[in-house]
Write a structure and sequence with these properties.
Blueprint lengths: L2 E6 L4 H9 L7 E7 L5 H9 L3 E3 L8 H9 L2 E6 L8 H6 L4 E5 L13 H10 L4 E8 L9 E8 L6 H24 L4
Parallel strand pairs: 1-2, 1-4, 2-3, 4-5
Antiparallel strand pairs: 5-6, 6-7
Length: 189
């Protein structure tokens, strides 16, 4: 069994899907939700699911306390699901398992600092892209530059707004993130 720490900064809809997918009697489990925003909806979602939370100030990501907390909860994998902070090298180097990120575009385009949520969708529409999608990738010390694990796409319609495109992107995220994480934990990705 692998235990997963989910990092999130916002409402937590993807964290919720992971907590539901990996609920008992599943062989894997979400053992901790790490959040850097005390007002984030993900905290209430985790409490309702009975999953412990850890509120981490952004500057504390590199500290030993976070690594200790991850170990105490048996985390063998970190999934960034709507987490806006940059993961520092100290955490990447000190954590023994995979660290993966969910990005709301088809990398390598539309990635990097500041490219999250509606910022990404606006940029995709402004560039006249015919397709967008999601990327699940390994995390390194730069935003959105780790090795790609999986990508899933959807059309961009001529009349799309950031909101309408976001709906299709969220559907892809909810459909595919859990299955890719499960394949990764099972050694198939």
């Amino acid at each position: 069994m692998s235990r997963i720490a989910v990092f999130a900064s916002g409402s937590g809809s993807n964290a919720q899907r992971l907590m539901e997918r990996f609920a008992p009697p599943h062989r894997h489990a979400v053992s901790l939700v790490v959040c850097d925003n005390p007002a984030a909806g993900v905290i209430a979602r985790a409490h309702r699911a009975g999953v412990p939370t850890y509120l981490c100030r952004r500057g504390a990501l590199a500290g030993g306390e976070l690594l200790h907390t991850l170990r105490a909860h048996g985390a063998g994998c970190i999934v960034l699901a709507g987490f806006l902070g940059l993961i520092p090298g100290e955490l990447i180097g000190g954590f023994p398992g995979p660290i993966v990120n969910l990005h709301p575009a088809l990398l390598p385009r539309f990635g990097g600092k500041g490219m999250f949520g509606h910022h990404v969708h606006r940029a995709v529409i402004a560039a006249g892209e015919a397709r967008s999608g999601i990327t699940i990738h390994h995390v390194n010390e730069r935003y959105d530059e780790g090795g790609i694990i999986a990508q899933f796409d959807c059309p961009v319609h001529p009349d799309d707004t950031p909101d309408s495109l976001a709906e299709r992107i969220h559907a892809l995220e909810h459909r595919h993130l859990g299955e890719v994480v499960e394949r990764l934990l099972d050694g198939q990705a």
